[in-house]
Every structure is written in C-alpha cells, then in structure tokens.
Amino acid sequence: MSASSHTRGHRYAPEYTAAVLEWLELYDRRLVNSANSLSLELSKMKQYHYLKKFNIRVPQTIAVSGASTKEIQENLYQAAEKYFSEDQFITKHNRAGKGLGVKLFDHYEELTDYFESEEYDDPVDGVFLLQQYIYNPEQYIVRAEFVGGKFVYAVRVSTGGGFELCPADVCDDVSNQSQQLFDFSHCAGDGSKKVDKFSIIKDYQSEDIAKYIEFLRGVNVEVSGIESITDENGIAYTYDVNVNTNYNGEAEKKHFNTENPEGGMYHIAAFLGQELKKL
Predict the structure, then answer these.
(1) Helix (H, G, I), strand (E, B) or coil at 24
(2) Do the Cβ atoms of 212 and 144 come closer than 8 Å?
(3) Which of 59, 67, 94, 217 is the most core-located residue (most Cβ within 10 A)?
(4) Contact 43, 94 (CB under 8 A)
(5) What is the helix, strand, coil percentage profile of the chain, to 5?
(6) Paired strand residues for 132
(7) In sequence order, what are the beta bridge partners of 195?
(8) Burial, 68: exposed, middle or buried (Cβ in 10 Å; 0-12, 13-18, 19+)?
(9) pLDDT single digits (tens) 225-246
(10) Given a cut of 90, is residue 258 above it in pLDDT?
C-alpha cells in the first residue's frame, strides 16, 4: 500500500489496509509499523503536526480544501495571495507520493494558468497544500533511512530532474532514473560535473537524527525514510515521512559489497529475524 496507490487503479487500498491493520491490532498481533503509521503515510499535514510536536522544523504549509474543483481552486488562489504574495511556493497533494501535485510557482497569479492546464488534478482526499519553497543552491535533498527505529544511512538525492524522487528500482524501470546522470553545466560556478541522482552519504551526521528517532518512537513507526532539504543559509527543513520506504539498488551497489552488505534490505531482514525470535 502506498499513498499514490490510487494512481495505479487501487483507489481503496488505503481504506482496506486500515481495516486489516486495525483487525490485527485488535487481536494483539505483532505489526511492524502500526495502524497509526498508515494515517501518517496518507496525510502530509498530519506528518507536519507530529514533526513540529517533536521540535523538528518543517516548511510553512497551508492546507486548502473545498466542496468542488472550482471551490478548491478559488480557495487555493486566495490562500496563495494571502500567505505567499511576494514569495515562491509549491503546491502538493496532502495524500500523495511520487510528486503528485508538486509544482513550483514564482508568483501566485501563475495559479490561474495551472488550473486551466492538463497538469492540474484534484487531490484524492480533497486537500491541497501550499508550501514555502526551500531553495537549495546545490539542488539536492537528503533522505534518512531508519529500520527498527535506528538510523541506517542517508542518501543524497539530486533534484535537478524535478520533484519525482522515488528511490525504488521499480521507479527506475519506468523512468530509468537511477542510471541517469544530471548535468549541472548550466549552473553558476564549476557546474561541469555530472552527478548520480541517488548517492549514499558516508558518515552522515545531523542534529535532526536524534529528533527523528524520538519522533518515530512517539508515533510508533519502526521502518521509515525521512526527507529534508537545507536552504542557502544551512537551515534544514523536514518535509516528508515515508512509512513505506524504498531503497535504491544502484546507490547501494556503489556503497556496499559482500564484505560490507549492510544495505536497507539487509537491516530489515536482520530486524525481522530478531522480532521473529521474540514470538
């Protein structure tokens, strides 16, 4: 189950999954990630509320809804004019995945053309988000992976190709992203080098890691990938919690080997083995 399952013909997968998880919890079955984790996966606003509760910085975000497409668009325009009249911002769907509804705007008046374009699509839960745009001059975000509530590794993800940042190999089958090298020759300075879209960061350190561990413990999530972006002043903002996390095979091949096999699935297998012994 993923937050974008409705785009693949599985509109009611979240509702069915919730029923199964709640049934399992009712009978005291061991779950890796709780029923509550599903509700986090399905609502970015809920993620932001809980992240802030654990003193984790998130971008300014405004939730907008309406009873019809017209009303959603009118409310979206009014909110953008009120909160981001002089600033860049992005839109995104509250229940989303694979970059659904994510688009950058330099000015709120650009929304008018967006509403009339084929790009526009109502969010499946009726909630659109307006979010502060965080500019990273090096065009990357960081995804921190956790298994069993413990930090495993962080991966640097280039945003030079847009907002579709799915690390899974199945995404590569569709778009060949992990093989793709992004050319930054158009950037200021020495931008001639080409970089992998996904690359594991050796010895990654951040003051947010300890906060993430406390956050995951507080919301009863054991396996997760948490994404953040750092602005030009070195201030980090956390903007996405992936409960159904994925790992990029190409990046792991370059970082791990038979002598050091500790990729994401290695840690999940070890964690599940430990939990199985407790039953």
Answers:
(1) helix
(2) yes
(3) 94
(4) yes
(5) 35, 20, 45
(6) 89
(7) 182
(8) exposed
(9) 999 999 999 999 999 999 988 8
(10) no
Q: State the virtual CA torsion across 41, 243, 239, 99 in degrees, nearest 10.
A: -70
Torsion of Cα atoms, 43 then 222 then 239 then 144, to 10°: -150
Q: What is the distance in angstroms between the CA of the first residue and the CA of the last residue of the chain? A: 25
Planar angle of CA 230, 178, 182, nearest 5 degrees: 60
| Whether the predicted pLDDT of 10 surpasses 80 | yes
Residue in the block written with tokens 């526009």: 120
Structure tokens at 89: 């911002």
User: How many residues are there in the chain?
Assistant: 279
Element (H, E) at 165: none
Q: If DSSP codes are grouped into helix, strand and coil, which group holds residue 131?
A: strand
Between 10 and 191, name the one with better pLDDT.
10
Closest CA to 34 of 168, 186, 218: 218
* DSSP designation for 188: S
Name which of 270, 267, 277, 238 is nearest 44 in CA terms. 238
pLDDT at res. 174: 42
